[in-house]
Amino acid sequence: MFAYLTYLLLRGFSFFINLIPEGPALWMGRRVGNLMYLLDLEHRRVAIENLQIAFGQEKSKKERRAIAKKNFQNLGMMAVEFFRIPHMDIETYQKKVETEGVDEALKVLEEKKGALLLIGHFGNWELMAMMSKVINKPILVIAKPIKNNRWLERWIIRSREKIGLEIIPPVNATPKVIQALSQNKVVGIMFDQRGKRSKGIWANFFGRKVPTTPGLAVMALKSGAPVLPVFMIRNDFRKHRLIVKKPLELIRAGDFNKDIEANTQLFNDTLESIIREHPDQWLWIHRRWERPKSSRRK
After folding, report:
1. Where in the chain are the domains?
2. CA distance 81 to 88
3. Is residue 215 a contact partner of residue 198, using CB atoms and an 8 Å limit?
C-alpha cells in the first residue's frame, strides 16, 4: 500500500509541476534543495566528507560547504526537470540546451561499430536522454529496476522510452550491449558509481583508490566501439550545455586484463577532469569512497 501511495504522490507532483511555468517550478526546486541541505543531515554529511577527500588540500571548508549547498540546489531543480522532460518537445529542448560536439560524434557511427557513451551523475543527467531525439537514434542504457514499487517502475520506464531510451537490465548486460553495438547502436554507461569490492578494478579517483566497475572497458575492448565522454552541464537557472567529447584513445597493449585496468583508470581520469571544472554539479551525496573505519557507524 505504501508503495502505491508513493507512486500516486509522485504522479500528482508530476501533474502539478507541469501545470506551472518553468521559472516558478525551478524556483521551487531550488528551494527544496536548500531545505534538503538543512534537513537531510546524512546526505549532507556524505557530501561534505566526499568533498573533503577530493578537495581537502585545494579548497577551504567554506568553499567545500558552498559546493555542497549548490549541489543540493541542483538536485532540487533536477527533480523538477525530471518530471517535465517527458512533456518536452525537440524545439523546447533545443532552446534550453546548447550542444557541443554532437555532429562530430555522429561521424563515429560511420564505422558501423556503434558507440559507447561514458556518462555520470553530473548536471541534469536525465536530460541527456533527449540526445536521442537530437541524433534521431534510440540510446540504450543499463538501469537498475526500482525494487518494491512496480507501479513507479513501469511509469518511469514508459517515461524514459517516450523520450527515446531503451532500458537494459543490469543482469547479463554485457552480451546485450555488445550485440547492440554490432547493430551500430548507441549505448550509455553510467560509470561513476561505486563498484563491488570483489569485482571492481581499484583505480585512482582524486588521488585515492576506489572500486570501479570494469564493464565499460570490457565492452569497449571486446566490441571495438569508440568511447565518447558525454556530460550535461547546467549553465544557469534554465540553460544547459550538452558536451560530447571526442572518442578516447583506448589503451591496447596486448594484455587484456592489464588493458582493462589501464582503460578503467583512463575513464576515471576523464570523469575527474570534468568534475574539477564544475565541482558543484556531480552527485556528491553518493558514497564513492570508502569511509575510514573511525567514521563508520557502529
Report:
1. 2-289
2. 10
3. no
- Closest among 215, 17, 227 to 113, alpha carbons compared: 227
Distance (Å, rounded) from C-alpha 89 to C-alpha 75? 22
Cβ contacts of 5 within 8 Å, gap of 6 or more: none
- Residue burial 237-256, b: 16+ Cβ < 10 Å; e: rest: eeebebbbbebbebbeeeee
Asked whether the beta carbons of 130 and 93 are under 8 A apart, the reply is yes
Angstrom distance (rounded) from CA 136 to CA 121: 23
Residue with cell 537490465: 169
- Give CA–CA dist 111/72, Å, rounded: 41
* Residue 167 three-state SS: strand
Half-sphere exposure of 59 (CA within 13 A, CB side): 18
Q: In whole angstroms, what is the distance from residue 278 CA to residue 230 CA?
A: 14
- Distance between CA 46 and CA 291 in Å, rounded? 9
What is the tens place of the pLDDT at every residue in 237-255? 889 999 999 999 999 999 9
135-186 pLDDT, tens digit each: 888 899 988 888 889 999 999 999 888 888 999 888 888 899 999 999 999 9
Q: How far apart are CA 160 and CA 103, in angstroms?
A: 23
pLDDT range class, residue 193, cuts 50, 70, 90: confident
β-pair type (201-205, 208-212):
antiparallel
Question: Which range (26-30, 88-92, 282-286, 294-298) has the least confidence?
Answer: 294-298
Provide DSSP, 30-67.
HHHHHHHHHH-HHHHHHHHHHHHHHHTTTS-HHHHHHH
